[in-house]
Records
---
Amino acid sequence: MTSSDSLPTRGRPRTQDAASRRQSIIESAYRAFVELGFASTSTAEVARRAKVSKRTLYEVFSDKQALFAAVISEHRHLLLDLPRPKDEVCALDECLFRIFRLDISEEESQEREAILRLMTRESILFPELSDYLYETRAVSSRELLMDWLVSTASTKNLPLDDVEICAGMLMDVVFGALLPHRRVEDSKQKKAITAHIKRRIQITLCGMAWLPT
């Protein structure tokens, strides 16, 4: 046996291990929060699912609120696809269809529905949790949309009297329709909902005095 054979096998870099461990904890927490809700999900349960100790979990996340915020932040791309490519060329309504991810896959659509329901349910039950999400900027969808509207309004022929109101209206008309009172399983119904939301966006833009080119 050579001296090199007796040396222990070198593992992955520590930073890579820490990143993969953090990701595993977030994924396990996401599944637990969706299945059990915030109140019924313990850090011990998340640690069990992630196959780490509670001590390890607390080395990564200070408490359950911070863990919940990380879960929402990790999945916020399912709500808005921002920022956009700088060289993107499309009409304003088509850009918004892409931003609100209206033509995503069935699997992504189910994930989006799960995260929307989770955010809505827990924000009602725990208003302080909703405040925490905004304070930590785990949720910044409205701000991102406002920034995009300001940067593109002049080139897209969209008057912006009040960008905060415009962004809020667009988010209300989209997410209000994406959260039906009952689950929609039929693919035809889902396509109809998508078409309905696209029409909502177009009508809203007309109300904002958008002038298509």
---
Amino acid sequence: MATWMRHFTHFAALDWSGARGPRQRGIALAVASGAAAPALVRPGHVWSRAEILAWIEEAAASRADMLIGFDFSAAFAFADRGAYFPEWAESPADVPALWALVEALAAGDPHYEVGGFLAHPEARRHFRHGRGDVGDLYAPGAGRLRIVEQHQRATRQAASVSNFNLVGAAQVGKASLAGMRLLHRLRGRVPLWPLDPVPATGPLLVEIYTSLAARAAGIAPGRSKIRDGGALDAALAALGSPPVGVTGPVSDHASDALLTAAWLRAIASEAAPWSPAPLSDSLAATEGWTFGII
């Protein structure tokens, strides 16, 4: 699949949450501009998902040359079965249609929650909802994986879990579904790589894993959460970034966002992240890709 990179002046990283409620302490947003140290946007603020959407919309309106990474999955596995939801007549054909289906079924849920989608009898069949509540079409074991997730596991670049799993601390299914509701609203206004062509100017969205930034900074797998200002500055230095200068404790959500913003800046000018070998036009349209997995 042919793709290309371009110049950005700002690099934003969004640590996301799929938890219920109007505001989420698990959301953090950081921006690295120019060569300066990354900085939190509204430090100390407890974000709502609607506020994050508004912030991205403002970036789009200002035509900021910003690469915006979000820490959730833009799609579910498709290539392994030729469908997101086999045996469901309304299973969508591509990523935008998937977002539209999630929105249609969750439209009555407040705060971009997704209970309405997961309660649908056909949707329920594909997810692991609880330890004793597993849909009959949930794949045995770890659950279905996208090609990018299979590839990153095989090459040991990262360890991922199935988005169809909604159980445990590592699950990202609910966060991804909530994120799809935002992506649905941004469709046509902010392009998403690799689904959309990379624009010559303005913002661009990419899917990220914050653990990739931690690994690039030399932090061992399984120990990617940074909760100390000194450790954060050391990790930033490994990425060629100036220090943030925070002393004492720092939330892992804030450190994830800060470190990943610096990491995006460090790798965005490289060719490899924009042209991963397994990526094809059909994958871009149905499953997407995680920026930084090569």
---
Amino acid sequence: MTISVLTLVKDRPTHLAQLVEGLRRSAARPDELVVVDMGSAPPVAVDDVPFSVRILRLAQTGLPLAAARNAAAREAGGEVLLFLDVDCIPMRGLVGAMAEVVGTHDALVCAQVRYLGPDDAREEWQEADLLSRSSGHAARSFPASGLRAVHDAGLFWSLVFGIRRDTFHDLGGFDEAFTGYGAEDTDFGFRAREAGLPLLFMGGPGAFHQFHDTFEPPFQHFADIVRNARIFREKWGQWPMEGWLSAFHRAGLIAWTEDRIVVHRAPTVTELASARVLAALS
């Protein structure tokens, strides 16, 4: 089956370059790469690759993740869609493995992600070396090979996943009521479950997550997280992102009960600075 790789970017040209380098080295190259640029300055560019590249400019503020993924999917021509976060480097076998698995199984398929340290994959790199240096995600266990059915829709993650293009559109794509950062991927996983679409974890080739600064908790996305949590609670009768909401509550930013959030104040500049950490996991 033909396969399109889809990625979103905002001001991460170095990460995008390493993602593209991984695709350039793939044993089975994608039929195309679709990049949605969410307002990078300067706009991103991709040059000198042995596959088709299309770059869309999305004229929205912030990080319109749901809208950007949907825009990428509408533009894609492949029968299989491989969504790959821009800070991920695909392993050599990922594209071919995802095309085969999604071609055989009409499912939502997540691939493993291995996390790199601060000095890994900054310039020249070899996949075997990255494998030896990287580590898996503590909360998500993948089989060494083959597939594992996962019944907790909350474990779906959007860093690296594949789905048939027609199935994605049948589901309605990501719900654009979720604006900015947070919960749009969990909602997509829940809607896939409601539609009877299996969630599969794929062993074998996945992607490497490039190290970068992050925030814990993500105070920089405070308004988005609160807004999207309320939307999710209204739809599904439960709260998403409970760890982050708990952190906001402990910091005195919100009052959080079983059925409502009341915002007391926004994070201060000092709180933002104190939450900034160097972390491989994000």
